[in-house]
């Protein structure tokens, strides 16, 4: 079968769902690959490299007519209307928030697989685009902070005097938070971190940071996501965050609750306690943000001189490698569904990874999936 890779139509999207390397891997599984001209240009993958890898470079119409289309995100109907009935579409689609998209695929007989709905079980880790993008984004959050922070990260003892290291505080030590911790630590900062889940303390410490626990912490939920806090936990956490934020030069917030608006963890009062020149990177900005003063997508500077970065495209600011990792997640999906390496995907609905990410198939709506049983 032919896999089409479109140029992402969303304004500012630098990423592409396949790179020359992943094209070759898809071909090794028996697929033909058709890449839209210019699809990889913003990620430093020119058309010629795709052709060298064995792909056909074509126009948008040809790509959208392929048996299978793999993309970063789900575009509007102007693009999706080009898909053939019976085609397969694979991308991030936030099916929990976009029921209209699920209904569209169902009505148009398109088999749709959501890369952002891969079940959170060990076996599915190699397909998990949320993790791969959060990892790159966490690294980039620190680079963005360092870029606007007008000071050194590392402490220095020089003939002209001592320079103290920067203090970095990371709220939420999941994939993104741990990547931010590791990056800040490697740049010489003193790093602290808090997470609702006390069991991440060991991972935080292994990345070189001090774990600062919430006095009334919660238990881990069965699916690996933090549970929503009780009122007591929320009060204790807010007091702790306000105190820690006031002492930090750089704050990175990563607390997402799937399918919900991000909780406010850094209040205007906490920001007011920060020193001029301090920086907050709000990695939850896409869902509203963890800081009360975040403006999603923007850089704002408060009256007391604190810069708040609400960028929602952190992984897209490292497009070559973010595309490579996303493309490898796609290859790993095709490895799972192409056991005979014959370019013919077989969607086994008894496989909970495949079932979990399939939102529509042959005109049948399959979202939401049944709960995952294996961890
Ligand atoms: P996430 O984006 O849902 O949340 C980020 C972090 O913020 C989490 O650690 C969460 O506990 C924390 N958080 C949420 N609300 C908070 C609050 N109010 N205060 C402080 N912290 C808060 O999570 P994620 O980074 O995608 O992953 C979370 C966990 O799941 C990790 O342990 C990760 O290793 C695991 N995971 C497993 C798989 C898999 O097995 N396939 C895949 C992805 C992630």
TrEMBL record:
One of its GO terms (molecular function) is oxidoreductase activity. One of its GO terms (biological process) is NADPH regeneration. Residues 146-310 form the Alanine dehydrogenase/pyridine nucleotide transhydrogenase NAD(H)-binding domain. It is a multi-pass membrane protein. It is an enzyme of class 7 (translocase). Keywords: Cell inner membrane, Cell membrane, Membrane, NAD, NADP, Nucleotide-binding, Oxidoreductase, Translocase, Transmembrane, Transmembrane helix. The keyword Oxidoreductase applies. One of its GO terms (cellular component) is plasma membrane. It is found in: Cell inner membrane. Its EC number is 7.1.1.1. Residues 4-137 form the Alanine dehydrogenase/pyridine nucleotide transhydrogenase N-terminal domain. It catalyses: NAD(+) + NADPH + H(+)(in) = NADH + NADP(+) + H(+)(out). The transhydrogenation between NADH and NADP is coupled to respiration and ATP hydrolysis and functions as a proton pump across the membrane. Belongs to the AlaDH/PNT family. This is NAD(P) transhydrogenase subunit alpha. It comes from Nanchangia anserum.
